[in-house]
Amino acid sequence: MVYTEVNETRRSRRNPLLISLCVVFMAIVILSVTLGLTLGRSSSGSLKATFTNRCQTYLKDNGGTTSQNDCEKIWESFKKAFVGRNPCDVPPEAYDSLLDTVSQDPACNRMLFWSKTKDIVHAFTEKSSCYLTLEDTLLGFTLDGLTWCGKNQSQETFTTGCPEWSDCVNNPVRSFWNGASAAFAATACGDASVMLNGSIDVPFNPTSIFASVEVKNFNSSIMNGLTVLLVTKETDTKTCGTDASLKDLQKQLDPKLKYTCKVVTQSTIQNCISQPQITCGDCW
Ligand SMILES: *[C@@H]1O[C@H](CO)[C@@H](O)[C@H](O)[C@H]1NC(C)=O
Ligand SMILES: *[C@@H]1O[C@H](CO)[C@@H](O)[C@H](O)[C@H]1NC(C)=O
Ligand SMILES: *[C@@H]1O[C@H](CO)[C@@H](O)[C@H](O)[C@H]1NC(C)=O
Predict the structure, then answer these.
(1) Quick one: 2-273 is in which CATH superfamily?
(2) What per-residue string of b and e applies to 127-145 under the rule 16 or more CB within 10 Å gives b?
(3) Would the pTM count as exceeding 0.85?
(4) What is the residue with the minimal CA distance to atom 10 of ligand 2?
(5) Would the N or C end of the chain have less CB density within 10 A of its end CB?
(6) Ligand with minimal distance to 196 CA
(7) Mean pLDDT of 99-128
(8) What is the pLDDT of residue 129?
(9) Does 232 contact ligand 1 (Cβ within 6 A)?
(10) In the prediction, which pLDDT does 279 show?
(11) Catalytic residue flag (residue 162)
(12) What is the sign, positive or negative, of the torsion defined by CA atoms of 66, 67, 68, 71?
């Protein structure tokens, strides 16, 4: 009896300590397993998760039109373009099959291009569906702002240690945007618009994707014209008529396309964005 009592007392005294030790130990085990998994597979794990999450979000928000697209399949097709390849050896054509699979209905008269005006353009397209930019399409939305690459003889996908935009021409990110921009521009139909930055020296810059890829892919048998919206601040003096780079744009544009240019101040666009209900066409 006495022995049991002593034993019980000891045991009950020891228990809280044992339990705390166990809890701490388990917490450490769980933490290190989680950390190990996240660190060890961060690149492929999180890129795939981000890709499929964004893809599903897009499909949910744009229900109907693209319901045949399955995000896991699109991910596999995306991966094929660059996995196992040297990260400076991925040409834009590597994405042809992806871009063919995820073809989207062209939005005639609503397509909006941009160069050096990304923030204001997307603030506007997020608020209204008057216009559609590349980043408002499934692949553009899914990959906007992401970095990715593969490595020779590896099946992994990486998000760090990838070439920068200017490191090599045929890097996986740059080639994707070049290929996707070319495909997007080639479907432009009716009247398209472009927002160019009137606060900088060269609004139509020959090295931009708009000048070097998109303008070259416009198809005058489906497109009527291009409207340049030159976005300025109140203090800017640039106009459609005086800017030299816009003359270059007119020269490069297929003569069958009607060219229009309008100066639009940032505050006009901002006012428009702040309207509770945007009426397309009334903004500028
Ligand atoms: C135009 O470019 C300048 C310099 O890069 C930038 O500060 C400004 O926000 C741009 N304007 C618009 C409307 O995006
Ligand atoms: C990629 O791996 C193959 C096979 O070992 C090799 O022949 C090739 O030179 C490698 N390419 C690069 C760019 O490292
Ligand atoms: C332009 O569009 C027409 C009509 O859709 C098409 O037949 C033609 O192949 C396109 N041209 C180019 C260069 O893609």
Answers:
(1) ADP Ribosyl Cyclase; Chain A, domain 1 (1.20.82.10)
(2) eeebbbbbbbbbbbbbbee
(3) no
(4) 152
(5) N
(6) 1
(7) 93
(8) 87
(9) no
(10) 84
(11) no
(12) positive
What's the rounded Cα separation, in Å, for the pair 156 and 201?
Answer: 42
Question: What pLDDT does residue 20 have?
Answer: 59
Strand order in the sheet with 112-115: 112-115, 190-197, 223-232, 258-265
Model confidence pLDDT, tens digit, residues 206-257: 999 999 999 999 999 999 999 999 999 999 999 999 999 999 999 999 999 9
Are the C-beta atoms of residues 175 and 90 closer than 8 Å to each other? yes
Q: How far is ligand 3, taken at its centre, from the CA of residue 221, in Å?
A: 7
Q: What angle do CA 181, 185, 187 make, to 5 degrees?
A: 125
Question: Is the CB–ligand 1 distance for residue 120 below 6 Å?
Answer: yes
Residue with tokens 């930055």: 197
Are the C-beta atoms of 168 and 149 separated by less than 8 Å? no
Indicate the range of 23-32, 49-58, 167-176, 201-210 predicted with least confidence.
23-32
Catalytic residue among 149, 162, 189, 283: 189
Beta-bridge partners for 230 = 196, 263
pLDDT at 273 over 60: yes
Q: Where are the domains of the chain?
A: 2-273
Nearest atom (ligand 3) to Cα of 220? 1
More confident residue, 40 or 159: 159
Mean pLDDT of 79-91: 97
